[in-house]
Fold this protein.
Amino acid sequence: MSNVILNEKYMGVVDDTDKFINDIIERRRTGKIPNNLNICYNKEFDEIHIDTTKGRARRLLIVVKDGKSLLTDEYVEKILKNELTWDQLVKQGIIEYLDAMEEENTYIALSEDDLTDEHTHLELSPITMLGITTSLIPYSNFGSSSRLIRGSKIQKQSLGLYASNFLIRMDTDVSILNYPQKPIVKSFMHDVIKQDKHPAGQNVVIALMSFSGYNMQDSIIINKGSIQRGFARSTYFRPYQAEELRYSGGLIDEIGIPDKEVKGYKSEKDYRLLEKDGIVYTGAKIDGDSVIVGKTSPPRFLGELEEFSITASTRRESSVTIKHGEKGIVDMTLVTENDEGNKLVQVRVRNQRIPEIGDKFASRHGQKGVIGMIIPHEDMPFTETGITPDIMFSPHSIPSRMTISHLLEILAGKVGALDGRYVDGTTFDSESEESLRNNLFKLGFREDGTETMYNGITGERYDAKIFVGNMYYLKLKHMVANKIHSRASGRVQLLTRQPIEGRGKGGGLRVGEMEKDCFVAHGASLLLKERFDSDKTILPVCEVSGLMAIHDIRKDIYISPVVGENSDVSNIELSYAFKLLLDELKSMCIYPKLVLKSKY
Amino acid sequence: MFDKLFEEYKHLPKKLLDEVREESELNRLKSDEVKKVLKRIEKEYNSAQITSGEAIGIITAESFGEPGTQMILRSFHFAGVSELTLTSGLARLIELFDARKIPSTPTSTIYLTSDYNKDPNKAKQVAVSIKQTTMDEITEEFVCNLTQQRVEVILDKKKMRDLKITENYLEKTLSEKLKKVKVKQSGDKIIIKPDGKEIALSDVYQVKEKIKELSIKGIKGVNQVLPIKQANGEFVIFCDGEDLGSISEIKGVDIKRSICNNPFVIAELFGIEAARNLIMDESTNVIKSQGLDIDVRHIMFLSDVMTNTGKIRGITRSGITSEKDSVLARASFETPIKHIINASLIGEQDNLTSVIENVILNQAVPLGTGLPNLVAKMKDGAFKSKKK
């Protein structure tokens, strides 16, 4: 006697629980019931749950009967001969889809050798436990799991050909790798997802060595020659938009070159790139403050216009300019209308990004790093055959992180590049290290992948044999050009008179609480005072009442709020933030009295 | 031997001088050689001293703070493996520096007097007498006899023999500890009957529950004892609980050497200096166990700050921070409104003598470069006073 629940709704009771469940499963396998139905028995509550709803993640398993896999060699042969399709296998009940709930009632074997009579299902392959990005990592069964996770995450950040119609798209903050390549070392997943149609990296020659000290920690050294040949060049796209907004009273924004009478008119030079319709021409080189779309808005308050203004229309300038500190070339312009039927102009700006110090790169094994130095081709170390590496990667990154897969990919990449073939690095099912070593030996190289190298500057031979090989390298979307920031002086906040926050607005770099402690710990008091001078003010203070005095500039007299005009007032230099604190205290009816004393 | 020489250097710490004396006697140094040594030591000692204007408070704070951030990431714990689980890592450090009245895992290390500390059986004997024994442990069954309105306790004779508890002792302690009941011994049972004419059934039940938890022997809070042989062959008892006062009364315990991990108990029993040492030792242990290295002088300084008033004060808003002179300094730590309002009620004055209040006002902090002022000797008449 068990309760039957269908899609979270109580349906009734069945007497023979096991028979009921077995019947349903049998019918599903024979195709009498749709295969998207899953059934599960909850022993604790004595309930049978049947689920046919959509949105459940389900996974596929081979059905096992009496300890034997239903997918026999016969079927396998038929599949190989293309006589049997996947759908037919599912229809015949050899393979079935289970959701997380039904999986609770099963006993799944990982490999066919493990099968016992108790098993109900068999895993198609152990790689089904990996997702798409994880199975894209070659030789991943030789790496540590934490690095595998990082590797999967990193691949999502790599630049490549994210969509083949990128030329007509208006995506924000995207990049296209200019010369993407297929990886030499692939896994089965590269074929499944047709990765060669949208590759995301480039094959490079990599040497595991330190050089000149610029690849310490996680930084890498890049060959300038490789960059000049086009390695890791990408194009960065950023769309800008301008809208003709409608305001109350029938007023509307106007896209076009603003008149000189307009309030806030920039300068003729800034509008020089605009065409007659107020939109830049395609191909225009933009940097600094030049306008992309000229626009004027109606005056903010109508009353203001009637009372004070002589001319009837003082429209405000509200043109769209490029983001502070960026530059580029206008790639495409688009005129359309938005949901409300207002005119909408979109301009896409393109910017070529050549690798520079600070750009982030990674292999597929969670080994990420930034460029520490770009070294001219002629100064790079070279091998006996005259090969110079594109990238030099610190060998210290390997032992503690245990990414053996990284090393194997270099070896496999080397074999692939020299033998002119793709190497299969599918997890659990890859070409063996032994076979790679033999192949490399036959090609006339040392079987362990190491080579004698010579210093490119002095020509001396290195005592150590250097591990050199080919590997698929990814350029990640984090580029210094988008992050670099510095400021000497600039805008301040209205309330506190301290510098504003944020890179986009040209804000200050904060000397925070802990940084302050460092100054104090070093005894650098005067330097600290200077660093915190951004909001310093001169404050007139009445010496009798200890309150802020008022400075009447026209009469040039100081007025104390308590004593009046004839009081002793001293000018004090302190932070504006403290003046605010005093004001706040006064608002709480606390009398903050400053007692003045000469410091010297 | 070199008394006269050492007299010259008596401004150096006694410990240093004693060491020099011992070493020079051992190596048969001559008088001028000892003088050389002392001269060098004086130089090193002076150069190791902190100069005035050095921000030792912040340096200490940073010396704890920087490795402290790593402690969160690295804190590994022994998941219920050992018999005595101890709070360790950052949690213990916070507990110590906050000066919590009761540590989350109170433990004691008990040393034994010389006639007890060599023999494992004697050590065990002391350990058994320290360990708390409840009625529950030596009882086979508690029976509520409802018809006669009494509780019958059927004793576990074997357990009692092991723990050396006699029936007479049991009867005595039970009648001492339980009030409003009559305790009677009959065979291997102990019968407990509540007093009074009208006895409700619930009273009988309550008495039964009460005696279950009743401690009949040992020290309260000590549930586990672990006699351990140390490297020098001496037996030491590790146990939980912190009632050193009661433990000291037990025969065989050398209270002079025994310690617990609660500075407050130590301060009460042995004085504030001992508590300072305990704070130092405990925090050093935590830091060492995490594989970190903080200079002793920082730990010493922190323990000094916590104990220098004769009372243990934690580094909290109710501890040392509450005793800062400056209103602004207190307000900038925690609960600013409370401090500002209280200061305004009594008209407190802030003399701006410390670090944080000068940072708030953007004045030079009186430390390092902000400390010295220029004092120039002026020629007469070079500086005319306005008053003249």
In short: The first strand of chain B starts at residue 107 and ends at 111. Chain B touches chain A through 27 residues (CB under 8 Å). Residues 3-48 of chain B form one domain. DSSP finds 16 helices and ten strands in chain B.
